[in-house]
Write a structure and sequence with these properties.
With about 120 residues, the chain is an alpha+beta fold. It contains two helices and four strands, in the order H-E-H-E-E-E. Strands 1, 2, 3 and 4 form a four-stranded antiparallel beta sheet that branches. A hairpin with a 2-residue loop joins strand 3 and strand 4. It starts with a helix and ends with a strand.
């Protein structure tokens, strides 16, 4: 019996903790009371797509040029992630690497693509 009384008092105290008293609000006429929890959902977003040229430093060997491009790709992704404070970056890709040799030096480039969610309002 003692357990039942303690259980009922615990349940009633939990029920009271979730109620809210509203005083000093005139009840004559139309009255709307709105209670919200969390963030407002009034923000509107637009998804934009962008492209960037990713170019590694020139190197005399193809292997080194590819390594430089990978470093440039990693730096580009890191930079985008740093701008991603509000989880705005949806996707990012460095694209396909293309290497070309000019004046005994090889340079690897690609077209990086990204999709970013931008706040419109």
């Amino acid at each position: 019996m003692k357990f039942l009384v303690m259980s009922l008092s615990l349940i009633s105290s939990l029920a009271l903790a979730q109620t809210m008293g509203i005083k000093d609000i005139p009840a004559d006429g139309d009255t709307t009371i709105k209670i919200e929890k969390g963030q407002k959902a009034n923000d509107q977003y637009q998804i934009t797509e962008g492209t960037d040229t990713i170019e590694g430093e020139a190197a005399p060997l193809l292997k080194d040029a590819r390594s430089n491009w990978k470093t440039a790709c990693t730096d580009w992704k890191k930079e985008l992630k740093e701008l991603n404070k509000e989880n705005q970056v949806i996707s990012m890709s460095c694209g396909t690497m293309k290497c070309s040799t000019t004046a005994m030096e090889t340079t690897c480039t690609s077209e990086g693509k990204n999709r970013i969610k931008v706040k419109v309002k």
